[in-house]
Design goal:
The protein is an alpha/beta fold and 252 residues long. The protein contains 9 helices and 10 strands. The chain folds into 2 domains: 72 residues, 2-Layer Sandwich (60s Ribosomal Protein L30, Chain: A); 165 residues, SPOUT methyltransferase, trefoil knot domain (Alpha/beta knot), CATH 3.40.1280.10. Helix content is 37%, strand content 21%. The strands form 2 sheets. Strands 7-6-5-9-8-10 form a 6-stranded parallel sheet, with helices on both faces. Strands 1-4-2-3 form a 4-stranded mixed sheet. Helix 1 runs parallel beside helix 2 and helix 5 packs parallel to helix 9.
Amino acid sequence: MAEYIEGKRPVIEALRTSVPLERVLVADNLKRDGLVQDILRKAKAAGVPVETKRRADLDAKSERGSHQGVMAQAKPFAYAGLQDIIEISRRHADERNGSALVVLLDHITDAGNLGAIARSAEVVGAAGIVIPNKRSAHVTAATYKSSAGAIAHIAVAQVANVKQACERLKEDGFWVAGASEKAPDRIWDANLQGKMVLVMGSEGEGISRLTLETCDFLVSLPQVGQTASLNVAQSATACMYEWLRQNTPSDS
């Protein structure tokens, strides 16, 4: 099913953050104000075709009724396969003294969190992200926005079975670390060197039982304040940077 971005400012934001777009739709009776002129300029610069449609056609496509006479149709995201991520991780390991990182998200449902995690994963040089193909956020325009466009520069694989994906990665030499606030061991006391899968659980329930069974060990972030915990995107970022720290050669 096609994803449509509705409204003048959301379409401008999609063009600004390089969301891959099939086309921009403009109502035939739309007043060409400054925002519309900006959309037309950005679409032309990005090579995105602009089509004039009857407003009734836009109404029929709109889910929220807030299109303001402008909609953009997003292109389907090109997901990688798990084997693609494995191949990327092998190259990383060859280039980085045996280290590689894969981030596995166990039924995280918020597209904004997915984007924020993708941004951090791309920054630390992860080989890719693995997500379930059901009961999970998928890559949308919101993901592009929250990732500041980084989602376009990192491989994301959808899998039918998270546990089987973990087992396949283990076969390729990965260790699997699950992040859990209930884990007794702090992350900086764990050995994260080499090829590592970092598993992050869902926003409400954490890592599922079946996925926990595949983890080689669990780690937690230390807490000294009153807040129960960080959100999943913040926690993932902290964990990824600890992996990066442990796998960055010392200058001394």
